[in-house]
Amino acid sequence: MFRKFVFPFLLLGFLSLTACTEKNLNEPFLGYWLQETDKRPISLHIKEDGPDVVVRAGQLRFGPYETYNWPGEVKQENLLNMGNGRLQLRYEDGKLVDVDDEQSTFRQIDEAQYKSEVEQKRK
After folding, report:
1. What CATH number is associated with residue 75?
2. Which residue has the higher pLDDT, 109 or 22?
3. Alpha-carbon Rg of the chain, whole angstroms?
4. Structural domain span for residue 116
5. Is 106 exposed, middle or buried (0-12, 13-18, 19+ CB in 10 A)?
6. What domain count does the chain have?
7. What is the C-alpha to C-alpha distance for residues 69 and 15, in angstroms, rounded to an integer?
8. What's this model's pTM, rounded to 2 decimal places?
9. Could you tell me if residue 48 is inside a domain?
């Protein structure tokens, strides 16, 4: 009788511990990012949306400051696929690097810097 109850609880405990140690692949990408360029930099706000992420991207175009919300998914460790394949970013040495253009990089900024940057571009 004792074995009937103890074994299932031990198994359940082991499975729950295994689930807790699973690595969150989204973690390095979360936060606020700013493209490292002087010409109309893109700003990104990446936050979790269930198992995936949602990316709010903004850029000063020829006129108004435009923002887009793109779905994002971390398919492999250190690789973020955004906008249904529109853009892929790799996390490398604390920066995000555009897979298609190695010269296009993003540095992480804090929320206050992000809000200041966005507000400045809207004027």
Report:
1. 2.40.128
2. 109
3. 20
4. 27-122
5. buried
6. 1
7. 36
8. 0.74
9. yes
**Distance (Å) of CA 116 to CA 32, 109, 111, 113:** 12, 11, 9, 5
Any domain includes 114 = yes
- Select from 67, 65, 25 the least CA-distant residue to 45: 67
Per DSSP, the three-state class of 99 is coil
Helix spans in 1-123 (H) = 2-20, 111-122
Q: What are 68-106's pLDDT values in tens digits?
A: 899 999 978 889 998 877 889 999 999 999 999 999 999
Q: How far is CA 32 from CA 83, 87, 106, 113, 118, in A?
A: 17, 17, 10, 9, 11
In terms of Cα–Cα distance, which of 45, 56, 55, 41 is closest to 121? 41
Q: Is residue 9 part of a domain?
A: no
Residue 114 burial (CB count, 10 A): 20
CA gap 7, 12 in Å, rounded:
9
Q: In the structure encoding, which two tokens stand for residue 102, read together?
A: 């190695």
